[in-house]
């Protein structure tokens, strides 16, 4: 057989020998699917024999959106591709007069030549393959151990899912041996969860991955580098940015926040007028008495304001966007502080720690300065507020400071006159302390998450809620606070871009200090106020 005849094989066999390489734009792999030539081990004699019999097919693997885990091993993928590329041909007996005339009667038994089914689609099919449809899985639940918690499921339409071409780009061009070596993948909330081995420092690897993702695919997708709660190993999650859009509130934020703020002002005033606390309905007939609580309300509001302003200042420096603060009113202590949402994705745990600790640090600093001034300075009216010494048993830290500064004046069962600034500053410290409880999305919950990670912080949340539940049997403040945490601030904390790197030690020490101060403010003072006890130490 001449070389020219071999080159004209497609015309000779009437289209049964199909090599549609020039018509495929979406496939980068060419497979010879006949078993005898697997792994490219064949001789020229076998090749020509198979060509004459029409059994040689070039298979184009059209791109599909895969939903099963894949291996990152190239040899294994090629090996699987050989098996997947084999498509049995549909045998149809046809007579070929040209072969009969060339080969004579000796090859009459082979006059029936199997017709190879063409894998080339028409022009419209090729266009659809070039632009593959994106699919979505709507029935994938968010497990309690999800590595991407806090992101609500998006009600996807039929066109949001990462296609296989994009997944290949992620595996081959975005991830790599120098950052995150992918070993398997699985679908996850309209995106893809990649399992593998993290290379080098997590922070530097994430920067490379994020930069490559933006260079290859623009701003369509967001990558997270997280810890899988199932095995505590690093995972990378890539999701469409559409899935991360925040919910729109039915009521404008400023309107709702303003309404809560007005009620909080009222409770701050009410809290500093003891005559009205015994009968709340009496406020209707004695509104003018609220002005008596103006000084105390201003001091407590000043501590709260410094707390919130510090959050916003540090958040702006760290690139974290905060929502409008919702102040929570309380007729027991004036306010429970505020609920402030984080509107964007926090880059790393250290940034979250800075933002979360900034408020309590500022609030504690101002509160302690005012508290010390209250103990040192005499009341402006020389009378002050008469309280029983037992009130200082309600706080370990405040009781200890009072015992040190007041000395023998502070005795059990003895009333004493104190500057009202002590009570006002104490209220501000208490509000900061209850927000420093390591639970949910409180400042303390975010601090514990930033220091010890998601798993430890979730356990601390459970323990804190349980202890608050027990203490609510003895304190109405604890009761309302645990209800508020359970329904509004329980969490989970939204995922960070990179949750693997630990904060610097100095920021860890700062966060632990905030948690300890909050604990000291909330715990009761267990020792009796007597000079004998003080001298025994």
What structural keywords apply?
single chain; 537 residues; alpha+beta; two-stranded antiparallel sheet; 10% strand
Describe it for me?
This protein is an alpha+beta fold and 537 residues long. The chain has helices at residues 3-7, 9-12, 44-53, 74-85, 97-103, 123-130, 164-174, 202-217, 253-271, 274-277, 294-318, 349-376, 396-406, 420-435, 443-452, 454-471, 476-488, 505-522, 531-536; strands spanning 30-32, 58-60, 180-188, 191-198, 221-227, 234-240, 326-330, 334-339, 385-388, 415-418. A hairpin with a 2-residue loop joins strand 3 and strand 4 (191-198). Helix 12 (349-376) packs across helix 18. It is elongated and about 80 Å long. 33% of the residues are buried.
Question: What's this model, at a glance?
Answer:
The protein is α+β, with helices and mostly antiparallel strands. 45% of the residues lie in helices and 10% in strands.
